[in-house]
Amino acid sequence: MLPSELLRRGRFDELFFVDLPSEEERREIIDLYANKYLKMKLSDNTMEEVVKVTDGFTGADIESSIRDIAYRLIANEELQLTDELLLTSLKNVVPLSQTSPKK
């Protein structure tokens, strides 16, 4: 929640609620960032698993999680990008919607 001082008239004229992405929106976000950061096109089966695992994730959660996987791959040249690595990494993420549900 924003402090009441920031919600005074004239500070913000409009307040917007942005919901978590739907399955289809998560699919598009995952596809975008898997391609951007991992240069990877997920198979249909893997995509469906990743979409399920990312339930409750914001778009930013998905981006930062995939970017973190890319950083790990760069830092450890012996690490191989596999579907298992992707899924395991995402399963270990606690999304913002669970750590700060009121925000």
Automatic annotation (TrEMBL):
Lineage: Bacteria, Bacillati, Bacillota, Clostridia, Peptostreptococcales
Top-rank taxon, per record: Bacteria
Record carries keyword Nucleotide-binding: yes
Gene Ontology MF terms in the entry: ATP binding
UniProt keywords, alphabetically: ATP-binding, Nucleotide-binding
Name of the protein in question: ATPase family associated with various cellular activities (AAA)
